[in-house]
Amino acid sequence: MQKSIESKLGTFIHNEHLKSFKLESGPIHWSLNENHVSLEETIKRAETLFSVLEEFNIEAKIAIAKELIVYKNEFWPEYDEDDETLDWDAVDAGAYDTTLEEFCHAITLLDIEINEKSIYLEYDDGDLFGGHRIHATFDYNYKLLKATI
């Protein structure tokens, strides 16, 4: 097995324990999983994603926000339920709800994992969910398959 791989993104270093190649330079950490797809194909997928990463990240954030916004607003409220002065009519009207725009602005892409069947992304939640990470899986047409915290 190769110990490192050169790509347009940089040099991926093999991690035997994780059975993957890692690139940890810059704000986003990349991982290429060893799988049934050739390593060349995996690198090609990573380089293709890298070439559209800015646009993809914008669209990914929107898709994730749409998937998780109801959960965020219903179970991770931005108000203190024990506040005796809380205006519950305002709560019911959505006055304290996080908007899609606020959600998208709050989250930050940290990790990208390229594997055989999908692209796995991990985001910092911007404290929307008490510091939990957001996990999202996309297919190779960049369609959201699943988003969780």
Structural write-up:
The two termini are 34 Å apart. The longest helix is centred in the middle third of the chain and has 23 residues, at 53-75. Strands 1-2-3-4-5-6-7-8 form an 8-stranded mixed sheet. It is built from 4 helices and 8 strands. The protein has 149 residues and is an alpha+beta fold. The model has no long low-confidence stretch (mean pLDDT 91).
Q: What is the strand tally?
A: 8
Q: Radius of gyration from the CA trace?
A: 19 Å
Q: How helix-rich are the residues, as a percent range?
A: 25-40%
Mean pLDDT value: 91
Portion in strands: 25-35%
Low-confidence stretches: none
What order do the helices and strands follow?
Answer: EEEEHHHHEEEE
Strand-pairing-aware structural class = alpha+beta
Sheet of most strands: 8 strands, mixed
Terminal Cα span: 34 Å
| Number of discrete helical segments | 4
Task: Tell me, briefly, the overall form.
Answer: elongated
> How do the strands of the widest beta sheet line up side by side?
1-2-3-4-5-6-7-8
What is shown here, in short?
By secondary structure, the protein is α+β, with helices and mostly antiparallel strands.
Question: Which key phrases capture this entry?
Answer:
149 residues, alpha+beta, 32% helix
